[in-house]
Design goal:
This protein has 339 residues and is an alpha/beta fold. It is 42% helix and 15% strand.
């Protein structure tokens, strides 16, 4: 049985025109109501009819999504939430997974997305040449990673500020030897590792703590990488009493390494993550929470709004709120281990 826009309107208690504005990202609908309508449309399986307007508008009713690692939690969550908004508005998603340098080079050389999409959501950070290639498509562009860049609307968070809150918590507990598990910025041109590292260094400087390069280890933003990095830190002559992991997945790997070395958390070593992964509460991880799914929804909404008002240009950047979440993996250091 076909679900109509009237069914969505009845389910949410608003008019059909309000549903239409909400699903197309148009103004005049509160964010709370828009979220309710998108959720109801997804639950009912409603998709907007495109046949009446596709010929007149010249649109493909397809959104291109470019992602470096579709299997990673962050990217998968953003993609899932954005796709629901696109689908409810009658758009399909054309996905390009560019997880290797070869795939990335081939994509930006050939641009197979040209003339096949109405807009692009990029979940990777393009270098200047890649950004220019995307702008040459002459379609709305959005991203949820990295800072502002010409021709894109950006939905993101304050990575540096989030890292500062995590490391400051450890300093306030009395830790002086604080390690960091991070991820390299190359070859994907990520600014996130750099911004979060700078937040770490800023707090150490404010606290009068001399940074020790030996206390930084690369975890590659994976659980396995976090476990390897934590093992490296534990092998130091003077291991850290606390660790800031730039992602919850790396923090979970660190917890596994500590358990394997029969060290207690937080009695022996404190651990703070970043993201508020869906499993973070299960393991009691203290972390910095960011609204990952909400970033995907907002980026999708802004792209649809831009499509409906192309002359206005890209919407201004949106910074989503973050918050520090205190759980069970942090505590003051033991007197004998404080350095």
């Amino acid at each position: 049985m076909t679900v109509s826009i009237t069914d969505v309107a009845e389910a949410t208690g608003v008019s059909a025109s309000t549903v239409s504005r909400a699903l197309r990202g148009r103004p005049g609908v509160s964010e709370e109501m828009r979220a309710r309508i998108v959720a109801a449309a997804a639950e009912l399986g409603y998709t907007a009819s495109r046949s009446a307007s596709s010929l007149a508008s010249g649109r493909t009713y397809t959104i291109g999504v470019v992602v470096p690692y579709v299997g990673r939690w962050f990217f998968g969550t953003v993609l899932d939430s954005a796709e629901k908004v696109f689908s409810a508005a009658g758009y399909d998603v054309l996905l390009y997974n560019l997880g290797s340098p070869e795939a990335r080079k081939r994509f930006f050389t050939n641009l197979p997305i040209r003339k096949r999409v109405d807009a692009v959501l990029s979940l990777l950070i393009p270098d200047p040449e890649e950004a220019a290639a995307l702008r040459s498509l002459d379609v709305p562009l959005a991203t949820t990673v990295g800072g502002a860049r010409p021709g894109f609307t950006v939905v993101g968070i304050d990575d540096r500020g989030g890292a500062e809150s995590a490391v400051r918590h450890l300093v306030n507990l009395g830790h002086r030897r604080i390690g960091m598990i991070s991820g390299a910025s190359e070859p994907l041109h990520w600014t996130t590792p750099l911004d979060r590292r700078q937040g770490y260094l800023d707090v150490l400087a404010d606290a009068g703590i001399e940074p020790d390069p030996a206390l930084e280890a690369d975890g590659g933003y994976t659980v396995e990488g976090g476990e390897r990095a934590m093992t490296e830190l534990l092998a130091l002559r003077h291991p850290p009493t606390a660790v800031f992991a730039q992602s919850d997945e790396m923090a979970m790997g660190a917890l596994r390494a500590l358990r394997r070395h029969r060290l207690r958390v937080p009695e022996d070593v404190s651990v703070v993550g970043f993201d508020d992964h869906e499993l973070s509460e299960v393991v009691g991880l203290t972390t910095v929470a960011q609204p990952v799914a909400a970033q995907g929804r907002e980026a999708a909404r802004l792209l649809l709004a831009w499509l409906d008002g192309p002359d206005a240009g890209p919407p201004p950047p949106v910074e989503m709120p973050i918050r520090f979440v205190l759980r069970e993996t942090t505590a003051p250091p033991h007197t004998g281990r404080q350095r």
